[in-house]
Amino acid sequence: MASDQSLLQVLVVEDDLGDLALVENAFADHSVSSTLHHVADGADALAFLRRENGFADAPRPDLILLDLNMPRVDGRQVLDQIKHDDDLRSIPAIVFTTSAATPDIVASYRSHANAYVTKPIDLDDFDRVVSEIRNFFGHTASLPHRETDSPSS
């Protein structure tokens, strides 16, 4: 019941500030209490997740929205590192990118992406898609931070 338990912590890994603004608007306008954390590339995403290089106080995200095409370390590399890290692999990682290329989709799922969503070009569709992601992870899905300490039967 604590407020931090009901607050959805979302890490948005996105180098396009226009797309970031659209994601922020979609989260701000609706019913899921959330805090968005933003990093502009994969290197900072990994530092955030590992609480390194200026991110010592970073919260553990409940959800990662991950662009594929970014400078320094791209989303493919980030996804691969997250899903091979025992401490991070349980965090849902949604690839949210402009690419609709079959090789990107297949590679993302092979790297254990929890979903692959192509960013819509239409603004209303973009808002709808982000809202559906937000509502699913904010209302429908059971996330690790919401589990109780009691063992399951």
Automatic annotation (TrEMBL):
Residues 9-134 form the Response regulatory domain. PANTHER family: RESPONSE REGULATOR RCP1, RESPONSE REGULATOR RCP1-RELATED. It comes from Asanoa ishikariensis. CDD domains: REC_Rcp-like. GO terms for biological process: phosphorelay signal transduction system. The keyword Phosphoprotein applies. This is Two-component system, unclassified family, response regulator. The modification 4-aspartylphosphate is found at D67.
